[in-house]
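Batch 3, record 17
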Amino acid sequence: MPPESPGQKRGLTAIDGAMALIVILLFVQIWLVVATLETYLAGHYEAVLPATIISGMIFLGSVGLYLFIERMDAEFRRP
Amino acid sequence: MSLLRKPSPEPLWRDEFSVFSGDEKYVSRRQFSKFLVLTSLGMFVGNLWILARSWFSRQPTYPMTAIARAEDIPIGGVKLFQYPTPQDQCILLRTGGDSYVAFSQKCTHLSCAVFYSAASDRFECPCHNGAFSVRDGSPLQGPPRRPLPRIVLARKGDVLFANGIQLEG
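Prediction for the assembled complex:
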């Protein structure tokens, strides 16, 4: 169903932007896991803890964006 | 049958098989976002797993094992041996009069066996054309990005011993 009011259009744009941001964060996180595994297998353990902390922060950021999407969706569905 | 059926503009088959496959394939933005966040959680759990492995893995101890008589290997010659377990194939190379190097024979890309190429003076992997330096085992070419694990050598008289593994060349 296409958006009807300008408010709904704005809400949809915000939701799409948040989703795009989650996708970008996810790509960064996938790269981070691969790089951490490479350094771990090479015997460098010192990079593992900072990488895990950053990965956790990215996950929390994704959760925040998801909650934002939920809130926007509920707000703009309201008649 | 027609007596029991309520009057409907839809054909009978649509009433009886009222599953709209198009709707089943439809994924809302919220569902897709939830899937992305769950994938993000998976990546985080993967990082936690690596962290747990690095914290709880014990430092391995390696035995001192005789691997060859030094003079049995000519300059530029190689000898294969197993260290630290019979499943771990390694390669010993005599690079000079009194100079020996040994590395794990497993390519760090996909574990194919590397061999010494005298023509190019490097270790080469035949699977994906990877190559490693004979000096420190560092990757020179192809997909491998990590160096070959180096076997620490010790010499007592005429006998060469393997005495540990260094993961970074």
